[in-house]
Design goal:
Layout: E1 10-14, H1 15-28, E2 34-38, H2 40-45, H3 48-58, E3 62-65, H4 68-76, E4 83-88, H5 94-99, E5 103-106, H6 109-121, E6 128-133, H7 146-157, E7 162-168, H8 180-193, E8 202-204, H9 208-213, E9 221-224, E10 248-253, E11 256-260, E12 265-266, E13 272-273, E14 278-283, E15 299-302, E16 305-310, E17 318-322, E18 331-338, E19 341-343, H10 345-352, H11 358-361, E20 369-372
Parallel strand pairs: 1-20, 2-3, 2-9, 3-4, 4-5, 5-6, 6-7, 7-8
Antiparallel strand pairs: 1-10, 10-18, 11-14, 12-13, 14-17, 15-16, 16-17, 18-19
Helix pairs in contact: 1-3, 6-7
């Protein structure tokens, strides 16, 4: 998708905010605990390369990504730090993993067996860096059951193909107020961990929520993701131990302003009918940019005033009801501060009934990312 550099819709990413969020987290970590910055999904829509640069300056010692291509993007940009791919990578790519010094998540004995077969067939010498994923209750990916874990170790330690670099799990309720299930997962991890050797380099149970509210339980490395960008993993349920700074601002401009009459209808389906004479503004952002259609009715900010979206959101534009006549070119804030008002990603998420993670991730590459307050 081509970025729209020639229209007035932009994302502004505050580099200092990202730096502060990471630095403040590192200062709270237990001694000898490292922070890997999670920059998957183009750093949650903020730009993976730039965020990785800031994270490194703030003290991150490695990176986590979701897919192999994201790891390769970091390597191509010159990052030499450890990189862990959190999803399953097909054994077919082990030569690439070895060549690029990328660590990979392992979730099954079958994967280990196939990777070992390919390793021996290719006559490789440098082992594959692997992190064993234990499913302690998330139910997504990972080893379950003592027998499966013991079989995995038999394959690992009988072969020269593997460097067992890490072991980890993912807590599914670390951002909640009820800790019963969190404690159950802790017990499951402790029991499984005891089956593996002590001298494993990275032990990481701590996602962002575990780092914030559970003292990075059981970890010497944390996978710090959402709060890099200033967002609270719990939404509004739990207060963060230090103030987070939301890094992303989404702004556009009015490209046309017109007065409509009482009874005029607006947008596809002619759903919206003006109850009185109104000022209507058109803004060049739509669902192709990630402004979801179910944000219809949500208020954007113009000159410190609320301006609700009226009519259905179009692919490339939306219409807002203005409190008065404004000139074209007037700034419109979708996410961020405008006058004394502030629209957060959390506000948008609550309006459409989702989580704040989803809002920046859905903003497409058609919106240019502009970096401010460079470090």
């Amino acid at each position: 998708m081509v970025p729209g550099y020639h229209r007035p819709t932009n994302i502004y990413v505050n580099c200092q905010a990202i730096y502060n969020n990471i630095k403040n987290t590192i200062e709270r970590l237990p001694a000898q605990t490292e922070l890997f910055a999670v920059v998957k999904a183009d750093a949650y829509g903020h730009g993976a390369i730039k965020v990785a640069e800031i994270a490194k300056k703030a003290g991150a010692t490695g990176f986590c990504v979701a897919i192999l291509d994201e790891a390769l993007e970091l390597r191509a940009a010159g990052f030499q730090e450890p990189i862990l791919v959190l999803e399953v990578v097909a054994p077919d790519y082990i030569e690439l993993l070895i060549e690029q010094k990328i660590s990979v998540t392992v979730t099954s004995v079958a994967w280990l067996q196939e990777a070992n077969r390919i390793f021996q067939e290719k006559n490789k010498r440098t082992p594959i860096k692997i992190h064993i994923k234990l499913d302690t209750g998330m139910g997504r990916i990972g080893f379950v059951g003592k027998n499966e874990m013991e079989q995995a170790q038999e394959v690992i330690f009988a072969s020269n193909a593997f460097d067992l670099e890490g072991i980890f799990t993912h807590f599914s309720t670390a951002d909640g107020s009820d800790e019963a299930y969190f404690e159950k997962q802790q017990q499951s991890f402790a029991a499984a961990r005891a089956l593996f050797p002590n001298e494993i380099r990275y032990i990481h149970t701590a996602n962002t929520a575990t780092a914030l509210w559970h003292n990075s339980w059981g970890s010497n490395m944390v996978r710090f993701g959402l709060s890099i960008y200033g967002l609270n993993p719990s939404g509004r349920l739990l207060a963060t131990p230090f103030p987070l700074e939301e890094a992303l601002t989404l702004e556009s401009e009015l490209i046309q302003v017109k007065q409509i009459k009482k009874g005029d209808r607006i947008g596809y389906g002619a759903e919206y009918e003006a109850e009185q004479d109104e000022w209507l503004g058109t803004v060049p952002i739509g669902y192709a940019d990630g402004l979801r259609r179910d944000l219809q009715g949500f208020s954007l900010l113009v000159e410190g005033e609320k301006a609700p979206i009226v009519g259905r959101i179009c692919m490339d534009q939306c219409m807002i009801r203005l409190p008065q006549n404004y000139p074209t070119g007037t700034k419109v804030t979708i996410i961020g501060k405008n006058g004394s008002l502030f629209n957060s990603s959390q506000d948008l998420a609550e309006y459409v009934g989702t989580i704040n993670y989803e809002i920046p991730c859905e903003l497409t590459a058609r919106i240019p990312r502009i970096y401010t307050n460079e470090i």
